[in-house]
Amino acid sequence: MSTSGGAQLSLRLREDRAPFRRVIELVRLAARRGFTGLWIPENTGREVFTQLGALATVSDQIALGPGIANIFTRTPTLLAQAAATLDQVSGGRAWLGLGTGHQPALEAGHGVAYGSPLGRMRDAIGIIRAILRGEPLPRTPVVGASRFRLETGARRDIPIFVAALGPRMCRLAGEVADGVILNWATPGYVREALAQVQRGAEQAGRDPRSIDVACYVRVAAGGSAAATRDALARELARYIAMPYYRRMFDVAGFGAHTAAVADAFAEDPERAADLIDDDMLAALTVSGDAGAVRRRIDEYRSLGVTQPVVAPVPVGDDAVDSWTAAIELAGADH
User: Fold this and answer.
1) What is the Cα–Cα distance from 240 to 151, expressed in whole angstroms?
2) Is cis: bond before 131, omega within 30 of 0?
3) What is the reported pLDDT for 145?
4) pLDDT average, residue stretch 266-280
5) How far apart are CA 253 and CA 220, in angstroms?
6) Across-strand partners of 10?
7) CA–CA distance, 21 with 28 (Å, rounded to integer)
8) What secondary structure letter does DSSP report for 134?
9) Which of 80, 96, 23 is nearest to 319 (CA)?
10) What global pTM score does this model have?
């Protein structure tokens, strides 16, 4: 499953953990090391499309987009405008990662109502595509009008990726999207997720091989073995505390470990991290030397992942130092 003719390797940065000038340095390093794409999440202290517009000027080769922009906090019209602007600024290198986020965080942090994530995602993609193409809007529950045009200046179909955890969202990605984004995925989960993507594509009469498969791979580098393990465990514990991810981990076979971690996290995140099982950590993250990192990336490629996405985890006091080490380990030798 791929929309690219060559090998892809992308980078995902939680850039709010570093001064922006240093983020620019990291993107330049990634370009030199052969990375072809960049994903920036929006749940940070900086507005995602503003950053992406600035980062688009750093390299004229790397494709880039939000990983992800939330369809509950931004209207399809705003998402279409932002994607079209980024595409113009970058010279046609934009992509658009969409997701539904997590209900507690959206309702408490944004004050928005959460409901019908599958239907809303389907509607949002239809509306965004119609706006980018200058076509009449589909009649949907999200937008009641049957015709609406917005001149975005878009001159191509900007690739739309769907972040998917469960089987139904994976099938929807195969049915209507250009790509799927997987996160915290074991090899077994990747197989099941891609089977669902293929099922959705085939039901829609699409070629499953046309679907780009991005998968975040957590990489920690630049510290001692103990510091690296602690950093990865803290990151994983934070996700286990989120109900949607916990269910995914349980389905992947880690149910015997997640309950204790989730219960501990609310009161003591450090203790929750200490409870992470070593086998679970090894299945979901990678550390060590360049050989270990690249073998894990190749393993995901062998499963059908067309776009491995290195997601560096900060180790120690300086996040940029560890991110630099991760980029150098995963990237091509020059």
Assistant:
1) 42
2) no
3) 41
4) 96
5) 23
6) 37, 309
7) 11
8) T
9) 23
10) 0.93
Task: Please tell me the CATH code under which domain 10-217 is placed.
Answer: 3.20.20.30
pLDDT tens-digit series, residues 224-264:
999 999 999 999 999 999 999 999 999 999 999 999 999 99
DSSP letter (8 states) at residue 67: S
Q: Is residue 194 a contact partner of residue 181, using CB atoms and an 8 Å limit? A: no
Least Cα distance to 253 among 187, 170, 169 occurs for: 187
How far, CA to CA in Å, does 266 sit from each of 209, 230, 255, 261, 273?
Answer: 42, 18, 18, 9, 12
DSSP for 22-60 reads HHHHHHHHHHHTT--EEEE-SSSSS-HHHHHHHHTTT-S
Q: 212-245 as b/e, with b when 16 or more CB fall inside 10 Å? A: bbbbbbbbbbbbeeeebbbbbbbbbbebbbbebb
pLDDT in tens, 133-151: 988 888 766 554 444 455 5
**Please, are residues 28 and 54 in contact by the beta-carbon 8 Å criterion?**
no
Return d(Cα 320, Cα 326) in angstroms, integer.
10
Q: Quote the strand ranges of the chain, DSSP E.
A: 10-12, 37-40, 63-66, 69-70, 96-99, 160-163, 179-182, 212-220, 285-287, 307-312
Structure tokens at 289: 């030397």
Q: What are phi and psi of 229, to 5 degrees?
A: -60, -45
